[in-house]
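We treat protein structure as text, and this decision shapes the records that our systems exchange. We quote a single record here, exactly as it is kept in our systems:
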Amino acid sequence: MNKLENFAKSDAGKLALYAGGALTVLMECYETFVLTPKIQKAAGDRTIFDTAFMNTPEQMQEFLDNLTDEGKDLFRNTYLKSDNIYPLVYTTFFSLFLARFTDKTDWRACLPLALMVFDYAENYGSAKMLDTGKAEPAFARFANTMTKAKMMSMLATINLSLLAWWQSRKD
């Protein structure tokens, strides 16, 4: 952790932090404002199952049943591929951010890693359901649980980052 902390507080780390923040925002905007609406439109305006906090297996199946072939292709070959790069980007950004703005790198630097694990587990669930065309109840609950864990971890990571930044300003 000491190496991460030293890098985060160096000039190169500052540059990486700015670049990571910009890339994180750009990728989030691309997924949220470009890809998600296109996929939801291709599914008859149904919500993508990895963007909703509360989804039942029936709602997930309804999404899969209504998703056009073009929507499946966009989901599989663009959205999921983008969403396999995005966790690496935001994990790097948040880890550097926390290491830079805390006095000592501790358990908080591990929270972005947990977030990344939940996101990849959710992506696996989405890909599996997309490939089979079925939202089997046990698997659908697993995928939805990973979505919830991802969202809660993201909220905690953002809040801890803001708190670390705020506390660093007092010094």
